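Here's what a typical entry looks like (NADPH:quinone reductase):
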Amino acid sequence: MKAIVVTDGAAGAAGMTLLERPEPTAAINDVIVEVHASGYVPTEAGWPSTGRDRSGHDRSPAILGHELAGVVTALGYGTTGLTVGQRVFGISDWHRDGTLAEYVAVESRNLAPLPGDVDFTVGASLPISGLTAWQGLVTHGRLRSGQTVLAHGAAGAVGTMVTQLAREAGAHVIGTGRAADREKALDYGAHEFIDLDNEALEDVGEVDLVFDVIGGDIQARSARLIRAGGTLVTITGPAETRPRDGLAIDFVVESVPAQLVEIVQRVRDGRLRTNIGEVASLDDAVTALNPTTRRTGKTVISVRP
Ligand SMILES: NC(=O)c1ccc[n+]([C@@H]2O[C@H](COP(=O)([O-])OP(=O)(O)OC[C@H]3O[C@@H](n4cnc5c(N)ncnc54)[C@H](OP(=O)(O)O)[C@@H]3O)[C@@H](O)[C@H]2O)c1
């Protein structure tokens, strides 16, 4: 089968190659999915799990990609809950070969049914961004109606989901980003927008929840804005700072099928819009996935157009 592998995680597009690889086999509780579309997070080639398995053994050259939408073609021993021919979507294991391939082996517990009226490109754009936003706001941030959320990178793949879900939950949403992101962030539902390059972050006043996708100095300055009892949620790695009188939480998104069902239902009934930037074929994926290219939304690779 065709697959995008990474040979050098630090080399950007030059470290990625389209290769022929053996088709995966289904282990206990796995399904094999014929991948129709795969989402991609631009930092993925450099993640430790991309080069190592769970025992720490080198697993390169690894197949990239962890978001998928596709059709189940085989069940492993003991697999329940899904059937051959079923449309599914979700996140595959960080430490195993990924979804930028014609087939992938995934534990069935990481997948949810993809409704027939949601196309594969949309399905593949939702799992990481949608679940990250959901888990950051609901599971870790314990957001309540009436609170104020500072949503960094509000025009990005995660940020547009954060903005919409926070607003649906009854929060006041202050988005941030570059000057060019203002209209998009407001269009996705932010009540206000701060251009981090030209405006003072401190002008937003106190907030209850910071959703950090940037880290560093922006994270530190944001933590100082959190009112007593509030929360800093970051997805950029271990929190480097914490609010004076509040919680700092960092997390890596998990594939939770019940939450995927909630997210895709919102897309179907119009409460949630996905944010797809470029869509490219597997043959053109290396160019499309170049981590140095500025993105305006989620890159999705259409594996089986
Ligand atoms: N822990 C987890 O589970 C998890 C899950 C998903 C994503 N992530 C991480 O979260 C980050 C965001 O992911 P994403 O998919 O949402 O990326 P994205 O689509 O590129 O969105 C990030 C947005 O933030 C903006 N931004 C970044 N730094 C900025 C700065 N200093 N000033 C102003 N705007 C800035 C970006 O603008 P520019 O492009 O102009 O910089 C972009 O609009 C990535 O680092 C990703 O690896 C972590």
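Residues 127-140 form the longest helix (14 residues).

More examples are in the samples folder.
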